[in-house]
Amino acid sequence: MEDQGGLTNKRMLHDLLLKEIYIEALIRRNVFKMEDGRDLWQASNEELHAQLFDEEGNQ
């Protein structure tokens, strides 16, 4: 059975990989900043997800 530290590390890795995927997808759509002017890496995964799917819906 895995300890809590291992689960926490896996979750952190998952979140970082997901952020990287979202950012890569947005950059491929020529989106480099959030609507409020922040760099993409400063946004939460939830914000990036919303931005990505908003962009897809508007194209």
Describe the fold and architecture.
The chain has 59 residues and is mainly alpha-helical. It has one domain. Helices cover 66% and strands 0% of the residues. The chain has two helices and no strands. It has helices spanning 4-28, 45-58. α1 packs parallel to α2 (45-58). The longest helix is centred in the first third of the chain and has 25 residues, at 4-28. The termini are far apart. The model has no long low-confidence stretch (mean pLDDT 89). This is Fur-regulated basic protein FbpA. InterPro entries: Fur_reg_FbpA. It comes from Bacillus cereus.
Descriptors:
59 residues, mainly alpha, 2 helices, Fur_reg_FbpA, Fur-regulated basic protein FbpA
Give the SSE map.
Blueprint: H1 4-28, H2 45-58
Helix pairs in contact: 1-2
Pfam families: Fur_reg_FbpA
InterPro entries: Fur_reg_FbpA (IPR025072)
Protein name: Fur-regulated basic protein FbpA
In short:
With 59 residues, the chain is mostly helical. Helix content is 66%, strand content 0%.
